[in-house]
Structures are given as C-alpha cells and as structure tokens.
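fwd from M.: "can u put these together and see what the complex looks like"

so here's what she sent:
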Amino acid sequence: MSSFSPPVQRLVTELGKLPGIGGRTAQRLAFHLLRADKEEALALAEAIREVKERIGLCEICFNLADGPRCRICADERRDPAAVCVVEEPSDIIPIERTHEFHGRYHVLGGALSPIDGVDPEDLRIAELLTRVDGTHQPALDANEGQAEGIREVVLATNPTTTGEATALHIAEQLRARAPEVTVTRLASGLPVGADLEYADELTLGRAFAGRRRLS
Amino acid sequence: MSSFSPPVQRLVTELGKLPGIGGRTAQRLAFHLLRADKEEALALAEAIREVKERIGLCEICFNLADGPRCRICADERRDPAAVCVVEEPSDIIPIERTHEFHGRYHVLGGALSPIDGVDPEDLRIAELLTRVDGTHQPALDANEGQAEGIREVVLATNPTTTGEATALHIAEQLRARAPEVTVTRLASGLPVGADLEYADELTLGRAFAGRRRLS
C-alpha cells in the first residue's frame, strides 16, 4: 500500500514521466512542490499550460514559436539566404550561442533512422526542398510575395550515425534539385581544450581528414 | 539575446527553481514538455494544481493529507499508542516501507538549527507534547471524545547534528512532562551490507556504543 494520498501519487507519477527523472527524484520534486509556496508551484503549472497552449511551430522553419513565426524568422536582421538545418528546436540554442550564424534555421524534427522507423517522409525534408526551390508554402508567398533566395544550406545535424545519414541524404537531394545552392556540413574534429591522448579514434580520424592548411 | 520565446523562457525558469534541476536540465525538461502530447503535459500541470489545492496537513500528525486526516491517522488498524516523530512528511515513506512500525506519526516540519534560525517554537514540538499529554486539540476531542493514550514515542529524526539535537531536546521535554511515556531513538550503526573497512569512524563508533549482546 502506498502511503501517498491519490493526488500526491498522481503528481509523483506525472513527474516520473519526465526524461531523466526516476522514482526517487520524482518523489523529491513532488515533496518540494508540496512544501513550496502555492504561488511558486502554480507558476510552474501555469507555465506548462501556457507553452502547450501558446507555443506552436514557426511557419517558415518549424522552430518553436508563440506566433506564426519564430523570433529568428521574424527578425529582419537575419539573412534569409543562409539556412542551417538542425534535428530539433533545442539544437538552435547552442548554435545561437556561438554568434557564428546569422541566417535562418530549418528544423527537421529528428534524424533518419530506418531501425526506429524514421524515414525521409517523417522528417521535414520536403519542406526544406520547397524552401530552397523558392516555391515556399502558399501562406508565406501570399504574405510576402517573395521566396527566401537561399544560397547556402548548412547541415548541422548531429555528428552521429543517424545525423550523418540525414546530412548525406539531404545533400544528395539538394544536389539533384538545386545544384546552384552551396551545401556545407559542420566540421568534425577535436573539441577545443581536448587532449590528444584521450581523443577517441573516430574523432581523431575526422580531425585528420579535415585538417586545414596553415601556411 | 535569448532565442526562446517568453512562454518557453518562463517554463525553463520555473523548472529551474526545482531542487537539483540546473539550467541545462530545465531546458531539457522544457523541450520534452514542448514535444510531449498536450494531454501528458497538461496532466503534469493539473497534478501540480491539484496537490496545491487539495493537499493540506493532517489535523493529528501534520503529515500531508487530502482531507482532515492523513491515510495513516485515518486507518483504524494503526496503533494510536505509538508515535514516530519525523522531520518531514517524506521521511514517513521509507519507514512505512520497512513494515516495522504500526503506530502513527508526528511530523515536526524540520529540525532544530539555531544557525538557520530554527528554534523549538518553529517546529511542531508543542503539538507533540499536547498529543502526549492527551489534551489534544479541541477539534479532535469534540470529534472523538478521547485522547490517543500514547505510551511510546520513537524519535526518528535524521542521524545528523540537527536531527540529534532535535531528538535530545524532545526527549528532555517528554521526560519532564510525561515521565511515564517510553521515549526511544532509532539505532545508529553500520548499514546492512556495509564493509567495515570503509565505514566512517562516527558510524563505526555508534555501532560500538550501541552493540547488542548476542548470548
């Protein structure tokens, strides 16, 4: 018999569904919320409700957005001619933090993984191709009356098996359909501050293959 | 500039207020909730709201309760003559899991810690003494017309400096006020499965001091 009353048990169960939150942690978080000020706990409940009710996907890039467009696509200082393709909306944050990229994004919604049943049709690859073609969705054309004029597509899927496969697949599609567009891939190599002695062979191999001429 | 829209930022901030949830984890949880089914996310929001609206404190023992009494105090099979004193409601769960204690609880709401400004008046010590005196709060007397008839108080505060100080303080108060009541303290010693070689000296010292005669 659980010594929790049903509402407490429900809260523990719901918290336990979050990724990386096991049973013990869920209990600890539940007891924190029970002890916390009512306002503080309800602010969290409200924040969850708000994102589920107000946050949708950007009509251009499928990033998270609280209106028809995300903050990046709505920002006129961003260069619409460069598009960085990522797997998930959360991948945009670390890229933005670098301040190296000033274009727009395209969120695929995952990576190709035949084993898990993720095929090209399950990702937003067709939408990327139409963006590049300049035959963007009617809603946008009606609003803007113009295409984005994409000249570079940076493939920033993860440097994993599935991410690499996705990048290769998209690169092939783009080569066939829009040969004038430059397609690039993020460099793979040793992370800054790494120690060669402890580098794994795959990463070190990539670092060799991608070595740059200094003089 | 944050590339989050305000509702997402609010959710990350609120999640980050939970204990043990840092900025990165808060972001990861927020993105999980954004990706999750609307029903699943709202179930969490609703569970939080429900506990804050429905859960109060048991009128007898100050455990969490979804009515006037907690499930333990409301259970007639529990022995009202034995009371186990704990710091927090969350301490009740591991004790219940042992199936060793069949009495009721008393939740102090913390432990004495003059450094943090926690004095005896800040804990529910006076309430414990009145329970033991049998002069329980009028609401209960009116309902039941009887006291609990407490014969044993088990002090189950944590084996920490503050927990020990709290246990000693309560033991003194009880000795002065209800000398006929047996006051016990949970045994301290080596945890089951421990290795003597790695035991810390305080625990080992306690294990010696509390050694039991076998034959």
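replying to her w this: Chain B touches chain A through 53 residues (CB under 8 Å).
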